Amino acid sequence: MSAQPIRIAALYQFARFDDPAALKPDLLACMEGAGVRGTLLLAREGINGTIAGSDAGIDAVLAHVRALPGCAEIEVKESRAEAMPFHRTKVRLKKEIVTMGQPDLDPLAGVGTYVAPEDWNTLISDPDTILIDTRNDYEVQIGTFEGAIDPETKSFREFPDWFRAQRAALEAEGRTPKIAMFCTGGIRCEKSTAFARAEGVEEVYHLKGGILNYLEHVPEDESRWRGECFVFDERVSVGHGLKLGDHALCRACRRPLSAEDMAHEHYEEGVSCHRCHGERSEEQRARYAERQRQEMLAEARGAEHVGRKDDAGADG
């Protein structure tokens, strides 16, 4: 058995579910019966999420998921942890498994060309390649690939408008876009590359399995990645080899924090950081402070605080 007993599985699959709500009860029962925690999202376009548990528990849930329509070959990215990174077991129904706000887009019909991690450096070293980080601004802030364009989006919904403006600027310069995109685990790129192709861009590529796949398979001394990669669980960030990173999480705004961030005068554990201090009212911060106090009391008793917020939604 591994020295790290908790197995973490990040998974997604674009599929066509006619009735996602009908799939929820059995999936939730399987997770609960297997002692698996985390969040899985179901929508008409497929499934997405990150779960954690014992080897046997994860095997049981993955077997259930692979039996769902169109999910036999589901993408699964695995890692390990010493402690359970999630506090709840959730299956949530959504309109999209990753929200882009483009309801007519079908990633199954027009995704970009997959590029294996081992071939990624060659592609992005080509001066004709436009490299785009499709993640949100707070994710890019702690790490990205050399030379990548940061759209500075606060949510994935902003990406289509940003992309259209960027493309117009490139074409005004007489350049024909040859685009490579990347994200945490690959799911956002399934949509962003399909969107680019739907917009008429012919050469569109994306990193298969996302940054996590790259960090696992490309040696650090050959890597074009700089910094750490934000992940949507209690690990907060990982580095090369998927080793645990150095960032913590602001419990108020769910943004990653460096040691320098936590030394800021506006940082208070569980209450605020320098980014969200001005975004929250005194009443909200007082509520967060009480929540933090209750969590610390529960921890001191060796119990889990039942009032804790749900785990961050899955993304990638």
- Morphology call: globular
Class computed from helices, strands and strand pairing: alpha/beta
- Strand elements, count: 15
Show unreliable segments: 306-314
Order of helices and strands: EHEEHEEHEHEHEHEHEHEEEEEHH
Helix content: 25-40%
Number of helices: 10
Alpha carbon gyration radius: 20 Å
Keywords: Oxidoreductase, tRNA processing
Family: Belongs to the TrhO family.
Catalytic activity: uridine(34) in tRNA + AH2 + O2 = 5-hydroxyuridine(34) in tRNA + A + H2O
InterPro entries: Multihaem_cyt_sf, Rhodanese-like_dom, Rhodanese-like_dom_sf, TrhO, TRHO_N
Short description:
With 316 residues, the chain is an alpha/beta fold. It has 10 helices and 15 strands.
Describe this structure in words.
By secondary structure, the protein is α/β, with parallel strands linked by helices. Helices cover 32% and strands 21% of the residues. It contains ten helices and 15 strands. The strands form five sheets. Strands 4-1-3-2-5 form a five-stranded mixed beta sheet, with helices on one face. A four-stranded parallel beta sheet has the order 6-10-9-7. A hairpin with a 6-residue loop joins strand 12 and strand 13. Helix 1 packs antiparallel against helix 2. It is globular and about 65 Å long. It starts with 5 loop residues before the first strand and ends in a 16-residue tail after the last helix. The C terminus is likely disordered.
Name its key features:
about 325 residues; disordered C terminus; four-stranded parallel beta sheet; 10 helices; globular; alpha/beta
